[in-house]
Design a protein that fits this description.
Blueprint lengths: L1 H7 L4 E3 L2 E3 L1 E5 L2 E4 L2 E2 L2 H6 L1 E2 H11 L4 E5 L14 E3 L10 H17 L4 E5 L5 H13 L6 H13 L9 H15 L8 E10 L9 E7 L7 E3 L7 E4 L1 E8 L2 E9 L9 E5 L18 E8 L9 H26 L2 H13 L3 H13 L2
Parallel strand pairs: 4-9, 5-6, 7-8, 7-9
Antiparallel strand pairs: 1-2, 3-4, 10-13, 10-17, 11-12, 11-14, 14-15, 16-17
Length: 364
Amino acid sequence: MNFIRSMIGKHRLKSENKSLDISKITPRMYAMSYPSDSFFESMYHNDVDDIAEFLNKNHPKKYLIFNLSGKPYNPEKFNNSVKNYYWPDHKAPPLSDIFNIIYQAFSFLNKDREHVICIHCLAGKGRTGTICCILLLYAKLFLKSDDANKYFSLKRFKELDKGVQEPSQVRYLRYFDKILSNKLLISPKIYEIKDVYISGIKLKDGDVISYKFETNYYKEALAYNYKSSTDGQIVLGDVTINIYKNDKLFAWVFFNTNVEDIVNNRLFYNIQQIDPRFLLKEDAYKLMTVDIVILPYHRENNKPNNLVDEMMKTEYNKIQEMNKYLNYAHNKFPSDYFNENKILFFGDEELDFKQVLNNANQIK
């Protein structure tokens, strides 16, 4: 079993003669793959009992796990110290989930200098890396998302370019970058999508391209032919445009109306900005683009709209919580905040922190 695991990944940790897919991103933050009770899955991910033994031996009652996979397991193996979150593989986390995780992670680490957090999805790469990078950015241990991502890649995979790669996940890291670096607070921005133009795909006779909208407030509400105009779809917050070929989902664009830069009422995405990333390797999609006509929403003749009112109320409540955490980060004196979080994530292991600074300054 250990031989098979070692062939799959060179980043595995050896513990008690067992090969574990777990990496110490900082002395107080681990990233790992899914702890499975399935024999087949545990061959290339982790065995749930091995991970439980590792954490309970090295950090007894001092750890908190963030399970981002959507696949629950018996939390009693981990002293019920598991927080469950889910968003689909290859997609970014909703902004509200990001801030909930920030609050829970920082609160737990602050309670005890011996506390550690452990983050996983399935492979321990995209979704896991997104949250690890978000926490490092919020702590201002890195000022640029690209540097945080390179550091995560090195610590997790011992390679420079194996970290967060899916376009929507990278986009949300850069959203967070923008919010922190510009000391922005989030405000709800409601829009109406008027048209979506999908082009550049090599189609065979009979192929039909369509798309559906998905937001926090409705799931795949309406389907449209890619050549047709919509009657206007109201969107707010996190938005997915799912794209189908012959009714089979093959691509999507994921963005947030409250943070995305919308210029001249347009959003334009080329194939390098469309999920999933492996479409880049398909000749039929190399020229694919998604062009969205999106306008600020205005009530027609000031008529009441119960759906819009409910959307705005819900979004406003979420944003109030997010802005509490942003206010704290924005208003702390930079050197104090930096030193607090250096201790929070690295404890007394100063040498490891110097390595972080070295990576941040030298990786290009």
